[in-house]
From TrEMBL:
A molecular-function term among this protein's GO annotations: metal ion binding
Any Gene Ontology CC annotation: cytoplasm
Superkingdom, taxonomy of origin: Bacteria
Native source species: Lolliginicoccus lacisalsi
Signal peptide residue numbers: none
Keywords per UniProt: Metal-binding, Oxidoreductase, Zinc
Entry EC no(s): 1.8.4.12
Name listed for the protein in its UniProt record: peptide-methionine (R)-S-oxide reductase
Cofactors required: Zn(2+)
Pfam family, one: SelR
Catalysis: reaction(s): L-methionyl-[protein] + [thioredoxin]-disulfide + H2O = L-methionyl-(R)-S-oxide-[protein] + [thioredoxin]-dithiol
Domain MsrB as annotated: residue spans: 15-139
One biological process term in Gene Ontology: response to oxidative stress
Length: 140
């Protein structure tokens, strides 16, 4: 797991610029670590092949080849597209210990990663990511 001390982001905007760039729900989730309601996201059940990018900065985060159906209400991936695409940090909110997933490029909140849940994936991990944090670029 990563440290609470993240390396500096590669892409930064002032808060006012983030507010202008993102919709209110995008801002609430990406910049304030919110969560979209389960089973409401655009990519929850998507099977389209392509690359999932960070909606805030456009960095490549996940590929459709690592997406799987977890039936949890949010898009799930068993591995990031690149080991440096995301950073992990401890999250002790909501009276529990979880591991938060943030975009390496802009430090936007994406969701959480869980291990040991018994999904038949190569990593035994579930990157549970909010759809509103992603933009799918379909394979041509």
């Amino acid at each position: 797991m990563g440290s609470d001390q993240l390396p500096p982001p590669r892409f930064e905007l002032a808060d006012a610029e983030w507010r202008k760039k993102l919709s209110s729900i995008e801002y609430a989730v990406l910049r304030q670590a919110g969560t979209e309601r389960p089973f409401t996201g655009e990519y929850t059940d998507t099977t389209t092949e392509g690359i999932y990018e960070c909606r805030a900065c456009g960095a490549e985060l996940f590929r459709s080849s690592e997406k799987f159906s977890s039936h949890c209400g949010w898009p799930s991936f068993f591995d990031p597209a690149d080991s440096d695409a995301v950073l992990l940090r401890e999250d002790r909110s909501l009276f529990t210990r979880r591991v938060e997933v943030v975009c390496r490029n802009c430090h936007s909140h994406l969701g959480h990663v869980f291990e040991g849940e018994g999904y038949p994936t190569p990593t035994d991990q579930r990157y549970c990511i909010n759809s509103v944090c992603l933009r799918l670029r379909p394979t041509e």
